[in-house]
Specification:
about 160 residues; Pnp Oxidase, Chain A; eight-stranded antiparallel β-sheet; about 30% strand; alpha+beta
């Protein structure tokens, strides 16, 4: 993998993380209250002119056992729902990804519909096939990948 490009300043600051945490919590509350009528699309960065779809992903804490919910961009691939563990190109995988790998049976909410799914990391071949479609949906994923030396995981949520 190529040397990572410089990450924008401030991306990994504690203030940025805290703000993103509270923005995410507010997003979940509004999305759930409106059954996705508000919050079902993301319009930031490359999605400003081409909004990207948003779902809510439930995940169980590895240590706490508590259920958490994260708003994430997604791509439908037949019956599967695909999400990306990018965390904006930060150095570590997001906590939701680590939780999901420990407890893969979960639910996603797309607008007002809740789906029971089992999550797994895409194989290298699946990731190679899905990545161009994900970047077409949200071009910033390519930037995020260039900012980190980890391979950003692609997660496939299959119906159960």
């Amino acid at each position: 993998m190529a040397e990572p490009k410089p990450r924008p300043k401030g991306l990994e600051s504690p203030v940025t993380r805290r703000v993103m945490k509270y923005v995410g919590r507010a997003h979940v509350l509004v999305y759930r209250a409106t059954k996705g009528r508000i919050g079902a699309t993301f319009r930031v960065g490359s999605a400003l002119r081409k909004p990207a779809p948003v779902l809510l992903l439930d995940h169980v804490g590895q240590k706490s056992g508590r259920t958490y919910t994260s708003p994430l961009l997604y791509l439908l691939d037949g019956p599967n729902v695909v999400v990306v563990a990018s965390t904006g190109g930060m150095a570590k995988d997001p906590q939701w990804y680590r939780n999901l790998m420990a407890h893969p049976d979960t639910e996603v909410q797309i607008r007002g519909v809740v789906r029971r799914v089992r999550a797994r990391s895409a194989s290298p071949e699946e990731r190679a096939a899905l990545w161009p479609r994900l970047v077409e949906m949200y071009a910033d994923y390519d930037s995020y990948q260039s900012w980190t030396d980890r391979e950003i995981p692609v997660v496939i949520c299959e119906p159960r």
